[in-house]
Amino acid sequence: MTGTTFSPLHENFLAVIKSYYQLTKPRIIPLLLITTAAAMWIAGKGQVDPRQVLIVLLGGTLAAASAQTFNCVYDRDIDYEMLRTRSRPIPSGRVHPRHAIVFACILGILSFTLFAVFVNLLSALLALCGIGFYMLVYTHWLKRTSTQNIVIGGAAGSIPPLVGWAAVTGDLSWTAWLLFLTIFLWTPPHFWALALMIRDDYAQVNIPMLPVVKGEETTVKQIWLYTLLVVPVSFLLIYPLGEAGIVYGFFATILGGIFIRKAWQLQQAPQDKQLAKSMFKYSILYMMLLCTGMVVDSLPAMHQITATVVEYLSSFACNA
User: Fold this and answer.
1) Which residues form the signal peptide (predicted)?
2) N or C: which end of the chain has fewer CB within 10 A?
3) Domain identity same for 177 and 276
4) 23: domain range?
């Protein structure tokens, strides 16, 4: 494969470390860890073991890094063709594909072992499933064949909250699956906004992303539809599940309203890449702050404050 079989080129050991670090696409991982942590805090009713959190987040980091490294190996041909990705470690010749595969396997094994030994087997299997689904279903099967690639493939990015929940409880409840569904529905607006920004790159290497195959207007309509789905679904955590309260409701209302407004603005100007960029960036902020709202709402101290405020307001209303 052209551009991917060069001998590794490095000036020093630190350059080697940097190249392998870049293989893991580290900018993607923090958001996955935030969703994992949010699930842990809700599952633990706001009280979690710091040691367990550290282990789970480390295991999740290793699993995500493994999946992303495998992805870099598989996609090295299209990475070489696109100017935006040609400088990545494998297409630039700084890391040999075989070495990257070994690295990815080691990361995956370490992740599974960490979960299985120090947490529980269910969380270990879920993390392993995340790696497998991302590689086999999304990267290998869907990414180069279907416009629905990131819809179905989005299930891989929805697994971290399942891992976090299972780590605390040892099982999977309706709440865990609701967190999964929320991220699953959030993924299309998030990723298609990015696809609108770099549509030409995908077209250059024949990746059938929705904007490439169906055009911008169809894509923004789909973004609008999924945004209208994910925002109401986020409130199911309050009712009927009863796992969140007023504080989370405040976060979800404000964040959801802005999310819908941005999706509407993008629908009015499908070819405006600045609006697509704004939508993409906000989608990240939306999920980060929504998870923050989950954590804050779950804290026992916040429950006490909320109960006190509600009692005061009730008393004031009765005396008015």
Assistant:
1) none
2) C
3) yes
4) 19-170
Total domains, the chain: 2
Per-position b or e across 226-248, b if 16+ CB within 10 A of its CB: bbbbbbebbbbbbeeeebbbbbb
Q: What are the pLDDT digits (tens) for 6-44? A: 455 556 889 999 999 999 999 999 999 999 999 999 999
What CATH number should be reported for the domain holding residue 229? 1.20.120
| Burial class of residue 10 (count of CB atoms within 10 Å of its CB; 0-12, 13-18, 19+) | middle
Amino acid at 201: D
Query: Do 105 and 244 reside in the same domain of the chain?
Result: no
SS3 call for 306 = helix
Query: Are 100 and 224 in the same domain?
Result: no
CB 127 within 8 A of CB 60: yes
235 and 100 in a single domain? The answer is no
Q: How many helices (H) and strands (E) does the chain have?
A: 15, 0
Tokens of 37: 């942590």
Burial bucket for residue 194 (CB in 10 Å: 0-12, 13-18, 19+)? buried
Asked if 44 and 28 sit in the same domain, the reply is yes
Label residues 130-162 b or e (16+ Cβ within 10 Å = b): bbebbbebbbeebbeebbebbbbbbbbbbbbbb
Give the domain CATH number at 53: 1.10.357.140
| The amino acid at 289 | L
64-94 confidence digits (pLDDT tens): 999 999 999 999 999 999 888 999 999 999 9
Spatial CA neighbour of 193 closest among 248, 258, 267: 267
